[in-house]
Design brief:
- This protein has 4 helices and 24 strands.
- It is mainly beta.
- The chain has a 15-stranded mixed sheet, with helices on one face.
- 23% of the residues are buried.
């Protein structure tokens, strides 16, 4: 008796009587699939420690009667990769072909009455021919994640899904995914908030591994896949929501860099602060201006429709207090030009600028020196008998100093090429 036969005899009693879902089953509803790309970040999790291991991009297209899925994995250092390409019937998910490409081996298979193809060893430039005759219908394992999203999931839903996974043993190319449990679950996206979802518990029969799939109840997308990898470590794949685009304008990095480097205009300016202590006391600054110290960094960034929309969208999100704020395009940081204050009077300069609107920013600390009056008591005027004729509050004057921080952001417009614009960057409180 083969090992495969023994495993079938040991199949948990709980799976007996469950329906089998294979290609062509009425439970498979491929209209739930949404063509396009999905990006998943792959983490290895041990306790509270999350280590990023790489990324997987699923690219699914439908053309005529065929569905094509490309699963492209790259490790965190982009030194190791594997691309798996599956083609299946667009309605039934019956497999048609499978190709795996990696650094060491490639595998190319065709599915039909028999499974034919070759296993290619790259270093040796050697091929092994493949020929199998599966005993039952099956789904290509590379498509299984998508298949789960097509099912009529509900509380308590159970099913057995035969899957093909290539091994060199004819007795072990087919195994079962067994959906053991389906429960309601609230998935919290860091970008779009809460989503009512299904938590699907799946047993892989051949290994005994139990997976968990989080699938959205409304749009059927796969939010997370959780699987054990051994040694107390769990692999968690997280959907990064490539379709989340709350900001319609796109940031143009090339154009932004040109504005900072290809012009003939300059901005010269002074960065300083003026502020007043609040609280009802009479206050007078001892210094008219608190200049940014020499070496203070001043930044400049060309303004754009993207930046204005980004600020407006996040302002609306903060007001609603339900969704996380939208992170800024990472390309923005590479388009910020800086200079430093070159004297003790807060002076700075920017050159080679093109016409347009710019955002100037700086932050610096300073000592706020001030003079204030404070209540020191009451003066009474009394007659000889001791009766109070009048009373007057007495105020004294004192000098003080406190640490303060100026955070300044201002907009400056250059109207035509060659202009010299003088600006005061001031923080008045």
């Amino acid at each position: 008796m083969t090992l495969r036969s023994v495993l079938l005899l040991l199949l948990p009693l709980a799976s007996l009587g469950q329906k089998t879902v294979s290609p062509g089953s009425p439970d498979i509803n491929t209209s739930r699939l949404t063509p396009g790309k999905s990006l998943y970040t792959v983490y290895y999790v041990n306790g509270d420690n999350w280590t990023k291991k790489g990324t997987t991009v699923y690219d699914m297209t439908i053309s005529g009667t065929e569905m094509k899925l490309v699963a492209d994995y790259k490790d965190e250092n982009e030194k190791w990769y594997r691309t798996r390409t599956s083609i299946a019937d667009a309605k039934t998910l019956s497999p048609l072909s499978y190709k795996s490409e990696g650094l060491r081996v490639n595998l190319d298979l065709k599915f039909g009455t028999s499974i034919t193809g070759k296993y290619h060893y790259i270093a040796e430039n050697k091929d092994d021919q493949v020929l199998f005759k599966p005993a039952a219908k099956f789904v290509d394992f590379n498509v299984a994640d998508l298949l789960f999203t097509t099912l009529p999931l509900d509380v308590g839903y159970k099913a057995i899904i035969p899957e093909f996974y290539y091994t060199k043993s004819p007795d072990s190319i087919l195994t079962n995914y067994i959906i053991k449990d389906v429960k309601s679950y609230m998935y919290r996206s860091p970008k779009t908030g809460n989503h009512e979802s299904w938590m699907v518990g799946v047993l892989e029969e051949s290994t005994g591994a139990v997976y968990a799939y989080v699938i959205d109840k409304k749009d059927h997308r796969l939010w997370q896949r959780v699987m054990p990898v051994g040694g107390g470590v769990t692999e968690i794949c997280v959907n990064e929501e490539l379709d989340y685009q709350p900001i319609k304008s796109r940031f143009d990095k090339e154009r932004t860099l040109q504005q900072l480097e290809k012009g003939n205009s300059v901005i010269v300016g002074t960065a300083f602060a003026r502020d007043h202590i609040q609280g009802g006391r009479a206050v007078m600054n001892l210094k008219k201006a608190q200049y940014a110290p020499m070496g203070t960094v001043v930044s400049i960034l060309p303004n754009s429709e993207y930046l204005e929309e980004w600020k407006a969208v996040n302002k609306k999100i903060r007001k609603g207090k339900k969704l996380p704020e939208v992170p800024i395009d990472p390309n923005v940081s590479g388009c910020i030009k800086t200079t430093t204050v070159y004297d003790d009077k807060g002076h700075f300069e920017f050159t080679n600028l093109m016409p347009g609107e710019y955002i100037l920013m700086t932050t610096f600390g300073y000592t706020h020196q001030y003079s204030y009056k404070y209540y020191a008591g009451t003066s009474y005027l009394m007659n000889q008998s001791g009766a109070v004729l009048s009373a007057n509050d007495v105020y004294n004057t004192a000098d003080a100093a406190t640490g303060a921080t100026a955070a300044i952001e201002d907009k400056v417009t250059i109207k035509k090429d060659g202009d010299k614009v003088d600006v005061n960057l001031k923080d008045v409180k």
